[in-house]
Amino acid sequence: MSTMSVLLRALSLRCQQCAVGRLPLQRSTVRSWLVNRRRSTLTAEAVRAQTPQAVTVPNAATNRIVGKWLVGCSGLVVGAVVLGGVTRLTESGLSMVDWHLIKEMKPPQTEAEWEAEFQKYQQYPEFKILNHDMTLQEFKAIFYMEWGHRMWGRLVGLAYILPAVYFWRKGYFTRPMKGCILGLCGFVFFQGLLGWYMVKSGLEEKPESYDVPRVSQYRLAAHLGSALVLYCASLWMGLSLLLPTHKLPDTRQLTLLRRFARGTGGLVFLTALSGAFVAGLDAGLVYNSFPKMGERWVPDDLLAFSPFLKNFFENPTTVQFDHRILGICTVTAITGLYLFSRRMVLPRRSKIALSCLLAMAYAQVGLGISTLLFYVPTPLAATHQSGSLALLTLAMWVLAELRRVAK
Questions:
Q1: 303 and 387 share a domain?
Q2: Which of 25-34, 221-230, 299-308 has the weakest average pLDDT?
Q3: Which of 4, 46, 156, 392 has its CA 20 to 30 A from that of 13?
């Protein structure tokens, strides 16, 4: 009911009281009563205006909570990628020949269960060609490695989905953010299916081939690439919600620096993705010398396959050569980005991010060369793969810092 309606109703009641002789109806009386009533109404409205309203969501506090959650999820994705790399390096990825979302969460308990699992493994090419003399204890070691990787993947899924449901019900997400969160959760599920699709390629019988059984390098690259996309998207959203905005004028130099940083970040991503083809083809075990490949800068068998494009994805020599070139281009681009940023006035945290990116780029080059020269030892190779994630993380940090500079 509006204020005017209340006043009219009260005035009508007053007139009725006067009509039955309870109160004398005088013009001055009505005027004073209306003034007093209006004052009381204005006072009540002023009190309501000063009363604290309910806090709306989402707000700065909920954004910080969601940002921390997304950064934490991206950290779990890093763990999954590193663990997957170790699984690949130890040749453990084909030890589990079945895929069950719930059933496989419990590993074999009794000796009979282990024997049954081992017998299933013996029916597939990896045992027949590579591990035909493997003992049950050795099988347990590679089984637990792959089992740990799969369980970590389920942990990642729960870390995304359960908090997302809770935050959604609490109203922590804006409308655009809801679409992004749905995309991330759907991508986690897709990543799990893609992982099993990759494993299946290593379990298939290939009568025409007597090579060491391995998963398809195409599927391995797709599996790693999708994990990197999930990681970058989660980290980017988290940093966007957590990092404060800097106050700097949006100059032409700053625009160029942003574009340079985006291109450099894309090069870092592409270099990391090319490492999947190196791992899938065991290309790190050919031409273990640097800077030359053998005795030549360009090896004779660089384009030995036909058709031409097949070399870039199936020829180990070409794959390693491409990874070297991408690595050199990446460290060169990062160096140029750092030198270009030195000519500009940037916030202290942005300068720290750029310096860390430069340092990590040269450390990663050193790890890559060492891994190659020492014939890909597992600890060094795993560190090199982790270094690619660290480099990608720092590239994302630089991009987030430059994006948060106020226009």
A1: yes
A2: 25-34
A3: 46
Say which amino acid occupies 119. Answer: Q
Helix (H) or strand (E) holding 83: helix 60-89
Q: Are 143 and 95 in contact (CB under 8 A)?
A: yes
Cβ atoms 261, 401 nearer than 8 A: no
Note down the domain range covering 97: 60-241
**Residue 87, φ and ψ in degrees, nearest 5:** -60, -40
Helix (H) or strand (E) holding 405: strand 405-406
Residues found in the chain: 407
Interval 362-380 mean pLDDT = 95
Q: Do the beta carbons of residue 395 and residue 338 sit within 8 Å?
A: no
For the segment 94-142, what is each residue's pLDDT rounded down to a tens digit?
999 998 888 888 899 999 999 999 999 999 999 988 888 999 999 999 9
Tokens 């025409």 locate to: 208
3-state secondary structure of 391: helix
Q: Where on the phi/psi map is residue 221: left (φ > 0), alpha (ψ -120 to 50), or beta?
A: alpha
For helices 378-403 and 60-89, the axis angle rounded to 10 degrees is 160
Assess whether 363 and 219 both reside in one domain.
Answer: no
Residue type, 286: V
Overall domain count for the chain: 3
Say what the pTM is. Answer: 0.83
Q: What is the DSSP track for 159-221?
A: HHHHHHHHHHHHT-S-HHHHHHHHHHHHHHHHHHHHHHHHHHHHHS--TT--SPP---HHHHH
- Closest among 143, 146, 145, 154 to 109, alpha carbons compared: 143
Instruction: Classify residue 257 as exposed, middle or buried by CB count within 10 Å of its CB (0-12, 13-18, 19+).
Output: buried
Q: Are residues 345 and 207 in the same domain?
A: no
Q: Is the dihedral of CA 312, 315, 316, 318 positive or negative?
A: negative
> Does one domain contain both 293 and 161?
no
Supply the pLDDT for residue 204. Answer: 86
Per the structure block, which two tokens stand in for 180?
């992004």
CA angle 160–165–168, rounded 5-degree value: 115
E strands of 44-203, at which residues? none
Identify whether 307 is preceded by a cis peptide bond (ω within 30 of 0): yes
Phi-psi region of 282 (alpha: psi -120 to 50; beta: other; left: phi over 0): left
Residue 231 sits in the same domain as residue 103: yes
